[in-house]
Design brief:
Layout (H helix, E strand, L loop, with lengths): L2 E3 L2 H6 L1 H6 L6 H4 L3 H10 L5 E5 L9 H21 L4 E6 L5 H14 L4 E5 L13 H9 L3 E5 L19 H15 L2 H4 L4 E4 L6 H8 L6 H4 L6 H5 L3 E3 L7 H10 L5 E2 L9 H9 L5 H15 L6
Parallel strand pairs: 1-2, 2-3, 3-4, 4-5, 5-6, 6-7, 7-8
Helix pairs in contact: 5-6, 6-7, 10-13
Length: about 300
């Protein structure tokens, strides 16, 4: 569920920003290729990966550029998937906060490219996905019964709060939590029940904070947007286990909150070596049936075209 790639035009036009978005060795990104990805997938018995562009996504403040970058990136990923049948699926990028451009790209991605789902970031500038201005985008995704992969980033407010602390360590997990709360409390999850949301990294702090999130229902206007309560909405979500399987506490929290049928393998390749997730899973003491569900069976229910 969680495999990054680097479409040619997108990477060339915003190389500096893309390289600066990670504290990993730049060669991890500059040396990425479909062939290298396939080699790692084969080494760890991964049949298929659903790819998405790496951070910082396709929005850099200019409407036309956002539309151009999302379109070219999605075309490139679709060609890569076609060149390697059955090996790659596509979470298409959209140029939020450009709502009109995002709606056009959703149409192109699903109707022309036949992608598997949509890739969103946890925030855009200082707005999170549940912001009312984004409602038309989510209404369209709901109409299409879309799969939506939500990947962490850092909001403008928080990028430089703590010197010497990488945003990927602290801010990414907490921005994922802010994104979910915005979808909850603004009513998007209730209003758009047909969207299947996939969150990353075993949910970060979300499972630990889930019960605390219910306290917000003491405000009548928020409670009205969540007639089934917070926990019912959370239990509908899907999560991958990227960069989390070596942390037993994180996995215990996730498996306590979410049904086993909604937990899926994700590697976060190339930022995180695939073996870290594979080896971590093997050491958690799960039954073979549960491992099979995480590694493949749960995903096939969402992406049945990969069953062949």
């Amino acid at each position: 569920m969680h495999h990054h790639c680097y479409p040619t035009e997108w990477f060339a036009r915003r190389r500096a920003e893309i390289l600066a978005s990670s504290d990993n060795n730049p060669s991890i990104m500059t040396e990425w290729s479909p062939e290298k990805a396939l080699g790692q997938m084969d080494r760890y018995d991964i049949a298929s990966s659903i790819v998405s562009v790496g951070n910082p996504g396709v929005w850099f403040g200019d409407v036309q550029e956002g539309r151009d970058l999302s379109g070219s990136a999605n075309d490139w990923m679709a060609r890569m998937a076609a060149d390697h049948p059955g090996r790659f699926g596509v979470f298409a990028a959209i140029p939020l906060p450009d709502v009109e451009g995002s709606l056009k790209e959703i149409e192109h991605a699903f109707d022309v490219l036949k992608v598997d789902g949509i890739h969103l970031l946890t925030s855009y500038g200082d707005k999170w996905p549940g912001d009312p201005s984004y409602a038309p985008v989510f209404d369209e995704l709901n109409r299409r019964r879309a799969l939506v992969f939500v990947h962490p980033t850092v909001a403008n407010c928080c990028a430089t709060l703590q010197p010497n602390v990488s945003v990927s360590i602290g801010e990414y997990p907490f921005d994922e939590t802010r994104a979910l709360m915005s979808l909850l409390y603004n009513g998007t999850l209730t209003r758009c029940p047909n969207i299947r949301f996939i969150f990353t990294h075993a949910g970060g702090p979300i499972p630990v904070l889930a019960a605390r999130m219910e306290q917000q229902l003491r405000h009548p206007e928020i409670a009205a947007r969540l007639p089934n309560g917070v926990m019912a909405e959370l239990k509908k979500l899907y999560f991958d286990v990227a960069n989390s399987t070596v942390n037993k506490a994180a996995m215990v929290a996730l498996t306590t909150l979410i049904p086993p049928s909604q937990i899926m393998f994700g590697s976060d390749f190339p930022y995180i070596p695939i073996e870290k997730t594979v080896n971590g899973l093997a050491q958690l003491g799960y039954s073979q049936d549960f491992l099979n569900s995480i590694n493949r069976d749960n995903a096939l229910k969402l992406f049945p075209r990969f069953a062949a």
